[in-house]
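Structure first, sequence second, as always.
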């Protein structure tokens, strides 16, 4: 009962993915889905085929005895059959659990067992990895192989995806689902402790889809051709497959071919308008475009969505100035379905000089509708939006996790209903967020916080630097001092002194790295973020050693 107020008289229509699936069939049957196979050939079919096959998949799951709420795992690249799992599994009432194939096999096994996955779908090309996992997962009852044309031997007792589908009717009577029921489980990348399960509901995913399509966010429309480079096994490919199916945009999947040349070929030949991926992917693409600026016709490209870790301003600027390509920087988390903020320049700030505007576009942006943000200090005091005070970001909203699977990590949720992101940020008076660090990676020197992300951004604007990661090294006097790990561009050189000079004047003196270590590669997590725990493990004693040697 709504005491003292008039109840709305609108339908309580459930926000489920089934509506999006039906919409694909009834409104956009001819829209194309293109996938690159492991042998580099292209598979093409339509939304009508997608609907038919997702229905057959739901029939096959029912025949295997999969019940509502059961977890069904996928170990797959981005392709049309993974898309069928994205809909066929949740719309049948089960829960899709996307396994991250970049994790260590023992970690994948831990996650699959933790989620108690009953059924697992695996790409044939990934069987060598799967074989290292399967015997450690007691919950697996059925193994279904997606034959992608590779020749790996099939595991005993496994079933073939196409054979299962072929048996089923192309019409499935999808059940009425509660919008609050689980659609997917995605595990966090585990930069802090064991990976934890985020259980996305139909409702949260649908709301996220609507928000992602808005003109002022990613602006995904029927007119678009969307290339999710971000893996479907990580944070549900940022929700891009759901948004594309919702509005009827053509979908292009790269399969296992994520090298810059393959991606640029796909973008040019399929006339991609929106592509989303992590900075590492885009850095590789930018370097190749700089080498061969005329090779690919990217005139169709409208938006390159970059997120997952900080996009350096120099990269955003390089794409725009040298290649006329527009980048939108976004921040999000698995715990948020995953989009949180997006860096568009507000109308009255567009008059600012180029550098100020670039600063805004290289920030993490301001929240999308239905994401609320605040930041707090170590004593939980809420901090001012002054663009300077650093604190841990907290968020809330209808597509933010309220707890983890199994109730793990309760300390990540505040008593008054906010989620503690673990990101250290500043927020300015306009609401623009700037991530200065992961809370576990902050550098605290003499009691003051130093932003490694700001230093990394500045270092990556040096013409010789491909990548830079700044991390804390132990120091007797200051307890921690910043140290920079540097990867140089091929054929380029720079000394520590030159890099120091490049930073001078831009930051307070005590922020400048005490030293520079040159590496071939910076260690990364499975989802492409700098693995600073590893850097600290390798070089945390660098300054102490250097001192001792003097
Ligand atoms: P995941 O759940 O694996 O997507 O990781 C989420 C984390 O990635 C966030 O908490 C941030 O630390 C980091 N992250 C995501 N997007 C960005 C971004 N645009 N800039 C900086 N860090 C980011």
């Amino acid at each position: 009962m709504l005491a003292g107020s008039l109840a709305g008289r609108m339908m309580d229509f459930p926000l489920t993915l089934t509506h999006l699936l039906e919409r694909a069939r009834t409104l956009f049957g001819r829209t194309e889905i293109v996938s690159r196979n492991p042998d580099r050939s292209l598979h093409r079919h339509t939304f009508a085929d997608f609907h038919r096959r997702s229905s057959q998949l739901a029939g096959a799951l029912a025949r295997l005895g999969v019940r509502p709420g059961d977890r069904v795992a996928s170990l797959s690249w981005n392709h049309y059959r993974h898309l069928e799992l994205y809909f066929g599994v949740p719309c049948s009432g089960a829960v899709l659990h996307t396994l991250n194939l970049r994790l260590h096999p023992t970690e994948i096994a831990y996650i699959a067992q933790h989620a108690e996955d009953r059924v697992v779908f695996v790409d044939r090309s990934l069987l060598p990895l799967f074989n290292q996992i399967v015997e450690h997962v007691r919950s697996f009852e059925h193994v279904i192989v997606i034959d992608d044309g590779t020749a790996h031997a099939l595991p005993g007792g496994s079933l073939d995806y196409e054979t299962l589908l072929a048996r089923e009717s192309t019409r499935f009577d999808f059940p009425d689902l509660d919008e609050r029921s689980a659609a997917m489980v995605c595990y966090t990348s585990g930069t802090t402790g064991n990976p934890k399960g985020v259980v996305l509901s139909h409702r949260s995913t649908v709301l996220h889809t609507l928000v992602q399509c808005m003109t002022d966010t990613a602006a995904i429309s029927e007119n678009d051709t969307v290339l999710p480079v971000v893996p479907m096994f990580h944070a549900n490919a940022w929700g891009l497959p759901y948004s594309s199916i919702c509005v009827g945009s053509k979908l292009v999947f790269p399969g296992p071919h994520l090298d810059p040349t393959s991606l640029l070929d796909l973008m040019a030949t399929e006339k991609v308008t929106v592509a989303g991926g992590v900075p590492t992917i885009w850095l590789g693409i930018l370097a190749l475009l700089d080498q061969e600026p005329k090779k690919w016709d990217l005139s169709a490209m409208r938006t390159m969505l970059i997120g997952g870790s900080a996009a350096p301003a120099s990269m955003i600027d390089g794409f725009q100035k040298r290649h006329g390509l527009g980048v939108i920087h976004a921040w999000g988390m698995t715990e948020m379905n995953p989009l949180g903020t997006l860096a568009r320049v507000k109308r009255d700030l567009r008059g600012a000089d180029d550098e100020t505007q670039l600063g805004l576009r290289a920030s993490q942006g301001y929240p999308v509708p239905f994401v609320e943000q605040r930041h707090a200090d170590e004593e939980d005091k809420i901090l001012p939006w002054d663009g300077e005070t650093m604190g841990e970001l907290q968020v809330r909203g209808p597509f933010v996790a309220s707890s983890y699977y199994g109730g793990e990590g309760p300390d990540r949720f505040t008593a008054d209903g906010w989620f503690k992101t673990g990101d250290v940020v500043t927020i300015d008076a306009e609401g623009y967020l700037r991530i200065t660090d992961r809370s576990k990676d902050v550098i605290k020197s003499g009691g003051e916080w130093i932003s490694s992300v700001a230093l990394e951004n500045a270092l990556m604007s040096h013409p010789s630097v491909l990548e830079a990661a700044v991390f804390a090294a132990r120091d007797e006097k200051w307890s921690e001092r910043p140290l920079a790990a540097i990867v140089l561009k091929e054929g380029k050189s720079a000394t520590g002194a030159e890099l120091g000079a490049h930073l001078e004047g831009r930051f307070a003196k005590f922020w400048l790295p005490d030293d520079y270590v040159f590496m071939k590669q910076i260690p990364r997590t499975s989802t492409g973020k700098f693995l600073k725990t590893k850097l600290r493990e390798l070089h945390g004693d660098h300054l102490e050693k250097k001192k001792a040697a003097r």
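Margin note: Residues 145 and 263 are 26 Å apart (CA to CA).
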